[in-house]
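INFO  loader      accepted 1 record
INFO  loader      residues=172
INFO  predictor   begin
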Amino acid sequence: MGSSSKKKLQELIREIEKIRKGEDPESYLIAVLHRAQQIFGYLPQHVMDEIALAMDIPTAHIWGVATFYHYFNLTPPGKHVISVCLGTACYIKGAGQILDAIKEHLRIEIGDVTADGLFSLQGARCLGACGQAPVVMIDEKIYGELNPEKIIKILQAFRREEKKNSQKEASV
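INFO  predictor   done
INFO  writer      dumping tokens
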């Protein structure tokens, strides 16, 4: 474990120690897992093991909670996280076809990361942009009024930008 990871883990353990001083510390497990994911970007096994020790909760229970809720990632996300809105307004306006186009273009399923680590794909219940339906969020930016062709062009633009940035870094 690198020094950066150790510092992150120490930060999380300090937060857990504060929680343990209060009433019913085990009731904060989901909040602790959210915080761990915020710190690490996902929930690595060694972090869940440390949470189990710090909170005196069996690792199996923590694993069960982490795998039950869809918003926890057990693998590192891609550099760019794609969230396809599957809410009613978006779905009626073609979100299913957009999701299929993304899956086919990137050759991944929901919950997967592309082989190059550039993209990860997830579904979302609602992104709160129903007036622009169907929508996709990539990282923190919403793309609306989409169709399969538009989303593929957006993904291709991300790839071109990544290639350009890689070439710049290689020439430095």
